[in-house]
Amino acid sequence: MDPSINMEFLKSFDSDDDVEFVETFFNVVQHVHAEESSNAARTRTVVNRDRQAAHDLLVRDYFADNCLYNDDSFERRFRLNKAIFLRISNALESRYDFFKQKPDARGRMGFSSIQKCAAALRYLGYGIAFDASDEYLKISERTTVECVDWFSACVYEVFHEEYLRKPTQRDIERLYLAHEERHGFPGMLGSLDCTHVTWEKCPTAWRGQFTRGDIGEPTIILEAVASQDLWIWHAFFGVAGSNNDLNVLGQSPLFNDIWTGKAPDMTFTVNGHAYKYGYYLGDGIYPDYSTLMKAYSVPRSEKAKLFTKKQESARNDIERAFGVLKQTWHVVKYATRLWDKERIKRMVLACIIMHNMIIENEGRAICTYDPNDVVVPIEEFVPGTNAFLERVVKIHNSEMCFNLREDVAEHLYQHSMNDD
C-alpha cells in the first residue's frame, strides 16, 4: 500500500474487511497510473513523409504537359485513361471535404485529390497491400485504407445513376436492335450469370457459410447482367459463396421493377407473336421464366441444335464481361483483404462503375446516357396485391417460356435457311 495514504483515515474504519478493501482499491489505482505512464512513453513512430514532393513527382510523371510517362503507361498503371481519372478526381474534390487538400493540425498541407485517387486506384487495380504505394505516393497504410473506402463510396454515390442505371425505353430499343444484329436474338436484353469473389479475411465462424465445395475457399457471389458491348446493367453482390446461381436469383432484385410495373414498355415481336417482356440469356440452372432464355438440354432437331449453339455463343457476353472486369480490377479477381462485407461491396460496385465508364470512353457503348430520359412506369402495382401477384405468375409462366424459345428458335432457323 502507498505510504502516503493517511493512516488515521484507515483507522476510522470499524472492521479489518473495510481496511482491506480500501488498501486493495488504492493498489488498483496505483497500478492503473503506472500503466498509463508506461503507455505514455510508448508513442507512435512519426514518419516525416514529404507529401508535397510526392505530389510534385506524381504531376511530373503523369500530369504535366511534358510528363515523363505517356498516356499508354498511365492507362496501364491506373487502369483507366487520364480523362476519366481527372473527371473522377475533380468530381470527388468538388463534392467531398476528404478529397480537398487541407492543412493538418501542424499547419502542413495534406494529400492532394490526385494523390488520394491514385492510391485508391493502385489498390483496386492491382489488389496489392495497402502500404505498397507508400514509397512512391508517401501515403501510409492507414491513410490508404481511408482513401479506398472514401473513393469507393463516393464514386458509387456520384456516378451510379449514370453508370449503373436501369435501362430506359430508349436503351431497351437499342439493346434489342444491337443484340438482334449481332446474335440474331430479337427481344434480348443481355446475358445473366454469377461469379465468385474470393474473401481472404472471411471470419472463421462464417467460413462454412461462404465456402462451396467445388471452390474450396470463402467467396462472395456477384450476379450481373451484361450486354454485347460488355456494359454491366445489373449488379447484385453479397450472397454467401455456398449458394448456387438459382439461390442468388431468388434473392436478387433483377425482376422487381417488372413485378411492380416500374419497368418501361419492353414489347417485341418474334415469329409473328408479341411478347410483353424482354429476356436474358442464362444457363441451365435457372428456372423456366418467361424472362429467361435457356438452351435446350438435349437438342435433337437441327433447329434446336442451331438455337443451342447460338444461345451458348451469345451467352459468352457475360463471361467476357467478368473476364475484363477481373483482369482490369484485380481486387475483384484475387483475395479481398478486408473484414467488412459492406466495404467489399462498395469496392466491387465502384469497379463496375469504372468498367462501364471505360466502355463509354472507348466508344463501344450501345446506349448513351440522357439525364432527361427517365423511366415512366406504365402502371405501378403494390406488392402483395392481386395485380402484383398476377404479374409475378406471368413472369414464372413456364409455358410462355417454352413458347418464346420455340419462336426464337424458328426465327433463327428461318434466317439461317435464307442465308444459305
TrEMBL record:
Q: Which Pfam families match?
A: Plant_tran
Annotated InterPro entries: Harbinger_derived_prot
The name on file for this protein is DDE Tnp4 domain-containing protein
Q: Tell me the organism's taxonomic lineage.
A: Eukaryota, Viridiplantae, Streptophyta, Embryophyta, Tracheophyta
